[in-house]
Amino acid sequence: MDLKDQSLDQQLIDSLKNRKFKIASRSSQLALSQTYEVIDLLVGVKELGLTKENFEVVPISNAPGDQNLKDPLYVMGGVGVFTKIVEVELLNKNGDIAVHSLKDLPTIIDERLFIGAVPPLKPRGDVVIFNEKHKGKELKDLPEGSVIGTSSLRRITNLKNRYPHLKYENIRGNLNTRLTKLENGQYDAIILAEAGVFRLGWIEKVGQFLKQEDFLYAPGQGALGVQCRADDKEAIALLSYINQKEPRIRVDAERQFLNKLEGGCKLPIAVHSEIIDQTLRLTGQVWSLEADKTIREVIEGHISDQDLGLKLSEKMKQAGAGEILEKIRSQIDKKENEE
Fold first, then answer.
1. CA dist list (Å): 207 to 125, 126, 192
2. What's the pLDDT tens digit per position in 182-211?
3. Quick one: which of 41, 44, 38, 39 has its CA closest to 54?
4. Could you give the CA distance from residue 39 to residue 58 in angstroms, rounded to a whole number?
5. pLDDT under 70: residue ranges of the chain
6. Which positions are annotated as active-site residues?
7. For the Porphobilinogen deaminase N-terminal domain, which residue ranges apply (predicted)?
8. Residue 143: which CATH number?
């Protein structure tokens, strides 16, 4: 780097120091904890020399996914039921940066917006929290007809196949609300993403960690997507400092897989990714709603191959995944029309 480049870098850093960034976030405890996590990462970049005074959190309420707490997510119309309202704040310049759970962010975003960073990943699997009366048990030990709370078709179909003696019912609301419903006896157990449980400091409440090799996770689960406007060069430069190469490669491949499979976070589509010695291993799986049919495929390639998600989706379609997902869409549409 020559002196001119160094001078430009210093000019940029000085500009960042003199700016107060507004960070838009949903107002739930979990969403805010993710936002403060990102702020801590940015403040921790020593060469920038920023402080918490450089950031202002802008809580956003009334996302459709937060307002409608009755319907399962998979029958709610539209995309981005948790993220769209936050993106609007960015586009209206009421916020400069937005922090999302990446699994909630649609794979196709507004061209005026940009995912500037994927920070270090948190645990990516699913966990089970049991009602106190089942303390010490696992799912296989629960009595027939025990009620399991989850709003995820991915979780329902996989669990239904492995534990057909259990009953699966929709549960909505933020994690605190779900925990209260569990403690009040509405459910015998609830299934949650480990990352959210980790961020809220609830690990001691977990009764069972579901093995990731058996229970693949949702594309982008355990990852944050930090977004800004595509024309905000300062915000893009700022976020580049906390963008992590390997997590970004993994989640980009997962999201490409989801997109090319023409799925969404509402359908029973699961993935697992890992990087070993510059090789990305990507596993995908889909289930039928009846949980009597599943397709699971694996693909490997060098981390420089930006089409691995596409290649896995094509492999899955050739094995029949497209037909399974099309049937599910028809079943969901029928259910929506009936209601």
1. 14, 11, 11
2. 999 999 999 999 999 999 999 999 999 999
3. 39
4. 13
5. 1-8, 62-81, 263-265, 335-339
6. 104
7. 22-235
8. 3.40.190.10
Q: Token match 């497209």: residue?
A: 322
According to DSSP, the residues that pair with 193 across neighbouring strands are 126
pLDDT given for residue 80 in this prediction:
56
CA distance linking residue 254 with residue 171, whole number of Å:
26
Give the count of domains, the chain: 3
What's residue 220's pLDDT? 96
**Can you give the pLDDT at residue 135?**
94
For residue 160, give both structure tokens: 């239904």
Domain membership of residue 275 as a residue range: 244-339
Q: Does 150 fall in a domain?
A: yes
- The residues with which 167 forms a beta bridge, in sequence order, are 147
| pTM (predicted TM-score) | 0.89
Question: Which of 192, 150, 185, 179 has the alpha carbon at shortest distance from 167?
Answer: 150
Tell me, what's the pLDDT at 193? 95
Distance, CA of 306 to CA of 302 (rounded, Å): 9
CA atoms within 13 A on the CB side of 99: 31
The four Cα atoms 250, 253, 254, 256 give a dihedral, to 10 degrees, of: 160
